[in-house]
Amino acid sequence: MKKIALLAIITLTAFSSTAIAQKTNKKSMKKVLFVVTSNDKLGNTGEKTGFWSEELAAPYYELLDQGVEITIATPLGGQPPIDPKSADPASATEDTKRFDADKILQEKLKHTHKLSTINQKDYDAVFYPGGHGPLWDLVEDKNSIALIESFYTHKKPVAFVCHAPAVLKNVKVNGEFLVKGKKVTGFTNEEEEAVGLTKVVPFLLEDALTQNGAKFSKGPNWAPYSVEDGLLITGQNPASSKLVAAKLLEKLTK
After folding, report:
1. At what angle do helices 53-64 and 94-101 cross, to 10 degrees?
2. Which contacts qualify for 197-205: CB closer than 8 Å, 24 or more apart?
3. DSSP structure string for 180-199
4. C-alpha distance from residue 24 to each of 27, 30, 137 (Å)
5. Residue ranges of the chain with per-residue pLDDT less than 70
6. pLDDT, tens digit, for every residue of 194-211?
7. Whether pTM exceeds 0.85
């Protein structure tokens, strides 16, 4: 009888320890919010746009594989549009191939949260993938602007890649543009010219951030390049996506 009682105590203790460990692990898990465009129109061209799949996939898996919990939000909620050019096999990477086969992530994208329901208190950082889509919605979106300001003023990292740094155009902290005096990068004027869209986009990202006082720098066209300045992390183009995520992960795990 004593042996049975002892065994029961040992089993209960082990179960309790496991439950506590799981609860603690869940509590310590870092949470990152991904904010994605809802816009699918490339200006007045009649062509489609959206988010660039590599810019979502590469950072998503870089963070997910390290145990980061990721929530995805969009201005309208639901399925965000994917830029059809980013789905071209010629643009495929190992991350986009994984993305295409990932039924869990595809289902998650169908049910993104509405940006208006998001509170920065629930997350440790925010990340914006690019594509041309954000130039027409997230740049002017009041919820997005307020969210970035809130993350930044609460000392949480804010990260952007390719066209996504454009969403910083109207973000201010204490009355000054957030990018003023900050080192930033993003899709360059040369890269925009190379894709033939300088006359289509509402503004050139490089010019807009420079006009707002940013210290804009860049690497060679299409090569990985990322800079960080305190809590602000930016990447130049699709190839910079994983680099931005790595820098974000480093900040989260310090």
Report:
1. 80
2. 197/42, 197/132, 200/42, 200/43, 200/45, 201/43, 201/132, 201/135, 202/43, 202/135, 202/136, 202/139, 203/135, 203/166, 203/169, 205/135, 205/163, 205/165, 205/166
3. TT-EE--S-HHHHHHTT-TT
4. 5, 12, 38
5. 1-27
6. 999 999 999 999 999 999
7. yes
Query: Which residue matches tokens 């295409």?
Result: 100
pLDDT at 91: 86
- Specify the DSSP class assigned to residue 113: E
Structure tokens of 71? 């929530």
188 neighbors 221 (Cβ within 8 angstroms)? yes
DSSP state of 5: H
Strand ranges, E, within 115-252: 125-128, 158-161, 172-173, 176-177, 183-184, 215-216, 226-229, 232-235
